[in-house]
Design a protein that fits this description.
By secondary structure, this protein is of the alpha+beta class. It is 26% helix and 33% strand. The chain contains 4 helices and 11 strands; from the N terminus they run αββββαββαβββββα. The strands form 3 sheets. The chain has a 6-stranded mixed beta sheet with strand order 1-4-6-7-8-9, with helices on both faces. A 3-stranded mixed beta sheet has the order 3-2-5, with no helix packed on it. Helix 3 links the parallel strand 6 and strand 7. The longest helix has 13 residues. It is globular, with a radius of gyration of 14 Å.
Length: 141
């Protein structure tokens, strides 16, 4: 909730696009529907991924935020991220609330940035230029 609220405040204030919660589905290939915990779609991308006839968005969001739950398996999560990136996603944040960590993924790279300290800064990269958030804002003491 906290990260979604921070993201929503940043995006709405700048009219960058839309932030969605987990009730929004993204239809990737016709047979795959995924619903990230939080997602962002830029204004430009919203024009590309129109609402499909079943009311879901047809394509991947620019930014995907997945929050790990105890039942999640990393192989399953990584495959989800691959699907998002294969269909136009540009950035993914994997939030491990138990360890108070965020792992940052980008497409076509094996380079994963791990943010683990309260003063580490999560940034929006090319998707959300200027977005910065210290981990302590997401995981208060």
């Amino acid at each position: 909730m906290r990260l979604g609220a921070i993201l929503l405040h940043f995006c709405e204030g700048r009219k960058l696009g839309k932030v969605y919660d987990s009730s929004t589905g993204f239809r990737l290939p016709e047979d795959l529907l995924l619903s990230p915990d939080v997602s962002f779609v830029s204004k430009a991308r919203l024009k590309e991924i129109e609402v499909a006839p079943d009311k879901f968005l047809a394509g991947a969001p620019d930014l995907v935020i997945e929050v790990l739950s105890p039942s999640d398996r990393m192989a399953q999560i990584k495959r989800k991220l691959e699907h998002y990136f294969e269909h136009g996603g540009k950035l993914a944040w994997l939030v491990n609330w138990r360890k108070q960590q965020v792992h940052v993924y980008t497409p076509n790279t094996d380079n994963i940035t791990e943010l683990t300290a309260p003063e580490d800064v999560l940034n929006g990269g090319v998707v959300l230029p200027g977005f910065k958030c210290k981990l302590r804002q997401i995981f208060p003491p």
